[in-house]
Amino acid sequence: MGELIRLTAADLAAKLRSGEVSAVEAAREHLEQIEAVDGSLHAFLATDPEASLAAARSIDERRAAGEELGELAGVPLAIKDVLVTTDMPATSGSRILEGYRSPYDATSVAKARAAGLVNIGKTNMDEFAMGSSTENSAYGPTRNQWAGDRVPGGSGGGSAVAVGAFEAPLALGSDTGGSIRQPAALTGTVGAKPTYGGVSRYGAIALASSLDQIGPVARTVLDTALLHDVIAGHDHHDSTSLDFAWPSMAQAARGGADPGTLKGLRVGVVKQLMIDGVQPGVKASFEASLALLEAQGAEIVEIDAPHFEYAVAAYYLILPAEASSNLAKYDSVRFGLRVTPEGGGTVETVMSDTRAAGFGAEVKRRIILGTYALSAGYYDAYYGSAQKVRTLIQRDFAQAFQQVDVIASPTAPTTAWCLGEHSGDPMQDYLNDATTIPANLAGIPGLSLPIGLAAEDGLPVGLQLMAPAYEDARLYRAGAAIESLIADRDGTPFWAQAPSLAGAQTGKAAL
């Protein structure tokens, strides 16, 4: 295994700036790692080594010519397949978009390119981001790099595994109800959901437009913050984009690297997020982390958020309703798959046959549910009521943040479960997002970072931090301090403890 793939993005970027290594060398080592391990993991749906190396070579030439480049110039980047790119297909994990090539880049991708990051490939995901395990991909599941018989979480399991398995130091993901943070927890990586509107959604294949948010995935809090800085900012292409002068997330992370900065931090623990289904090992790791925070001078405050218990129910009405509207564009006429019955057919039969063949079971389930929730006579009873619950959850957060600086919870109630374990019972997947969904409903930022391994199975556990809207930097400052505290306790950064990939195909894997 090459030494470059083991570097953090910040350290790799420093070596690239100094000329100690080239962008071509960095890209080549990561492509070699993909070639070596991705046959077992299936984190990627598409790579184009020739295009990636050409992009890296261009960065080297520009640097040699004395051009001023971004801090991350030359660092490889994996991109969730929900984001359209001109150089590789964008399928959103669905057969209905198989082979689709976009004529433009998503804004977050365009910003990454402008900053000199090198697209190393498109990552696997649950179809149209509908799922919590990356088992709903039309192209097959992704396997957790810690244990090859386990899921990596979803919908962005491919991005999380790509980073955790050293196939890429950075990745872009999307988070509609936890799709960045929950896979981060299950794979021992770091992931952030920015404030809604903080990163442009232009060029992201839409699931639920009032919930979707693009965000960064990495192995450290600082790396996550560095990528966040690249993609943040106003975009006139996105009507929900915030016109706000965002502070440097990387500066906040660097400022929080000393655990002493936790002194005086008021940390809220919402009792409604400590649900009955929290795995004992997850609860133990979370409580141990709280004890460490308290020992550093943080104040732990119990928070009552009475409407959080309705968050999952409200979310699974709002999301399907918006999805049924957004996915109506896949009509067999404008783009994507077209299935024509033998001998021809009407527009209606072609559309019906195309959607039957192109959409997977989970997508069909949610389209049907959402269409029903929006139908005449049921709109107010279902979708309308869910939106009222959403408002109550936003008020719960507002009241909570009058008492605390950040809110902490387990990112996911369990560690990674076995592939196929939830087959036939979608509610099990839905409930795994119980702790992440409230932040999406309220539009506030959330960050997940690894805090240890569960005693019963030795798999990663994530801690989620949430802050008020616009206060993303607060999360990075607190997250970096907690990360440093955990590293001090264990003697080595958490991501460096991941096992080898030797057993990724069938059992406990190791990096």
UniProtKB/TrEMBL annotation:
InterPro entries per UniProt: Amidase, Amidase_CS, Amidase_dom, AS_sf, GatA
Broad class of enzyme this protein falls into: ligase
Catalytic activity: L-glutamyl-tRNA(Gln) + L-glutamine + ATP + H2O = L-glutaminyl-tRNA(Gln) + L-glutamate + ADP + phosphate + H(+)
SUPFAM superfamilies (alphabetical): Amidase signature (AS) enzymes
GO cellular component: glutamyl-tRNA(Gln) amidotransferase complex
Sequence ranges assigned to domain Amidase in this UniProt record: 26-475
Pfam short name (any one): Amidase
Function description: Allows the formation of correctly charged Gln-tRNA(Gln) through the transamidation of misacylated Glu-tRNA(Gln) in organisms which lack glutaminyl-tRNA synthetase. The reaction takes place in the presence of glutamine and ATP through an activated gamma-phospho-Glu-tRNA(Gln).
Oligomeric and partner information: Heterotrimer of A, B and C subunits.
Protein name: Glutamyl-tRNA(Gln) amidotransferase subunit A
Organism: Leucobacter edaphi
Biological classification of the source: Bacteria, Bacillati, Actinomycetota, Actinomycetes, Micrococcales
